Amino acid sequence: MRFTSLILLVSLSAATLHADPPEKVILSSGWQLQDGSRVPQKGAEISSASFSPKSWYSATVPGTVLTTLVDNHVYPEPLYGENNRPDVIPDSLCRTDWWYRSSFQAPADYAGKMIWLNFDGINYAADVWINGVAVGTINGAFVRGRFNLTGVVTPGKPAAVAVHIYPQPHPGVSHEHTLGAGNGIIGGISRIDGPTFACTIGWDWLPAIRD
Question: Residue 143 and residue 7: Cα distance in Å, rounded?
Fold first, then answer.
């Protein structure tokens, strides 16, 4: 979390009852990404300041997992030529769990205020860890997440965030649209996981992207 399958747009905000809140901080840089099968550590360790990612990809945020893999030259641009074929970019991307990790620093002027971590859309599900602490989960296609970090982070000091993204429960099977194979079923089993998927898989005018 699928926007492989993730769309990740993350920000920090602070709130107070007595004055205008400080400016929101967008956490769009410094993210790293790795296939969950290659990360034996648990969330508490991955989200600790001492954790050192090895061979992780530099992640593009906001973006999908495939965006990051294309930017890191693992796969070619799927919208060019025949690159979107499953023998070029595999369907396994949408059946894989992924870890995102980054570090940030809440501004010093957040001191004395409630601090929130905001996700503007993850697909399909996620566990969120900050400084070794599990702060919450997100479940459902593109559901926004909002987590209270007051007491978990210290304004003016570094913090680490780790997000474990899980695929949708019923990713279905992408159907290749050709004159011989026909159009296939519309949406298929992916519809079980939310109405969004009904319009993003199975149509002859919109072939599925591999993640």
Answer: 10
| DSSP one-letter string for 60-93 | -SSS-HHHHHHHTTSS--TTSTTTTSTTTS-GGG
With beta carbons less than 8 A apart as the criterion, state whether 71 and 65 touch. Answer: no
Task: Give CA–CA dist 123/159, Å, rounded.
Answer: 24
- Phi–psi pair at 154, nearest 5 degrees: -115, 120
In tens, the pLDDT along 143-183 reads: 889 999 999 999 999 999 999 999 989 877 666 666 676 66
Q: Which residue has the tokens 């693992």?
A: 74
The Cα–Cα gap between 118 and 128 comes to: 11
Helix (H) or strand (E) holding 46, with range, is helix 43-46
> Is the distance from CB of 167 to CB of 160 less than 8 angstroms?
no
> What distance in Å separates the CA atoms of residue 53 and residue 38, rounded to the nearest whole number?
11
Expressed in angstroms, the distance from the first to the final Cα of the chain is 11
Strand arrangement, sheet containing 125-130: 57-58, 32-35, 98-105, 158-166, 125-130, 133-139
Q: Global pTM?
A: 0.86
